[in-house]
Amino acid sequence: MAAAAARRVGVLGQACGRSGARGYRAVLCTELAKPLLVRDVPSPPLQPHQVRVGVHYCGLNFADILACQGLYQEKHTLPFTPGMEFSGTVTETGENVSAVKEGYRVIGVTGTAAMAEECVVDQKMLWRIPEGVSSEAAAALPVTYGTATLVLHRRARVQPGETVLVTAGAGATGLAVIDLAVNIFKAKVIAAAGSDAKCKLALKTGASHSVNYSQSSLKDEVKRLTDGRGADVAVEAVGGDVFKAALQSLAWEGRIVVMGFAGGKIPSIPANLLLLKNVSAMGVYWSRYQKENFPVFSSAISSALQYCQEGKIHPNIGAVFKLEEANEAFNHVLQRKSTGKVIISMK
After folding, report:
1. From CA 230, how far away is CA 252, in angstroms rounded?
2. Per-residue pLDDT reduced to its tens digit, 36-77
3. Strands 118-122 and 231-236: what pairing?
4. CA-closest candidate to residue 255, choices 218, 283, 229, 223
5. Are 208 and 189 within 8 A, CB to CB?
6. How far is residue 160's CA from residue 188's CA, in Å, rounded to a whole number?
7. What predicted TM-score, i.e. pTM, was given to this entire model?
């Protein structure tokens, strides 16, 4: 069924391309929880503060999938184009734009509309890609490394030498957390994932130890690996029983940061576990910083670009799909086949 849906998208995309109509190709969600379509859409006019970007790559995030299922916190009016981060080249600027010029390579952040050959965005939501950083790598930075920076620096305030437990350790954001924790924050990382292959990838990224929580007790393994002390910080993205085990794995005055619920079950927090070890529980909702504290939001992305240019971090691109393969890309993530960042190529 997935293959048939993908072929359907491909045929529509080809038909649009032959039509000769002015505009650009974009992925469209026309019905919730239904296959996506690729169609030609007209290019909108620019407002004075806006920039038109020819998109090279669009990062695929689980939030995009939830939005197309009608399950995301923010609801979108149908039809809409998913995609909240991209890399590309500036093709046109509004009359009041001063931050970028035509020909600049940029990454951008937008709530929707990035899964297309063209995207129009406010100038303040663009960051220049430094020399030496590929457009492919840059497309993997905003959401994953932006989130990871907020988790480790803003919320957990990780210190050198601390032990950080990362669940969903082979996912795009999990690998970004490991990369930053080891190479920027100089922490020790215990990566937790649901298969041996994913554990190996986390170790390759820089984790000191890994735990396959589908075969072993996460709590017991963390205790063993830390000589009974526990982890100083737990970065949790699975939910359910894994969250509880991560919470129980914390050391005295440890901190747990919730990033999401990839397992589908939102856990309740046993308050007595917070009390007994004087631990702290907190959350990170990446896009909320855009509205509530833009300087912090922007700084996290700028830092990721700088680290990447300096060769201190190494974004993991797990899979690249063409625009016509959007349904395949979504299914790849839904079926938990993905490791690292999944991106959509417009080439």
Report:
1. 8
2. 999 999 999 999 999 999 999 999 998 999 999 998 888 999
3. unpaired
4. 283
5. yes
6. 8
7. 0.91
Q: Mark 238-268 as b/e (b = at least 16 C-beta within 10 Å).
A: bbeebbbbbbbbbbeebbbbbbbbbbeeebe
Read off the DSSP letter of residue 80: B
Tell me what the mean pLDDT of segment 22-37 comes to: 95
For 325, which DSSP code? G
What is the structure's pLDDT at 22?
62
Neighbours of 278 (CB within 10 A): 10
Q: Which residue has the tokens 């920039």?
A: 51
Cα angle 312-315-321, degrees, rounded to a multiple of 5: 160
Nearest CA to 76 out of 38, 113, 27 is that of 113
Cα separation of 231 and 75, whole Å? 37
Q: What is the DSSP string of 141-200?
A: SHHHHHHHHIIIIIIS---TT-EEEESSTTBHHHHHHHHHHHHTS--EEEEEESSHHHHH
Angle, vertex CA 109, rays to CA 157 and CA 345, nearest 5: 115
Residue 117: what residue type?
E
Spatial CA neighbour of 302 closest among 74, 145, 189: 145
| pLDDT for the residue 30 | 97
Rounded to the nearest angstrom, the gap between the alpha carbon of residue 122 and the centroid of all alpha carbons in its chain is 21
Helices (H), the chain: 2-19, 62-69, 135-139, 142-149, 172-183, 196-205, 218-225, 240-248, 271-276, 288-292, 294-309, 326-334
3-class state of residue 338 by DSSP: coil
pLDDT in tens, 201-227: 999 999 999 999 999 999 999 999 999
- Long-range contact pairs involving 39-43 (C-beta distance under 8 Å, separation at least 24): 39/12, 39/13, 40/16, 41/81, 41/116, 43/118
Q: Is the dihedral of CA 205, 207, 209, 211 positive or negative?
A: negative
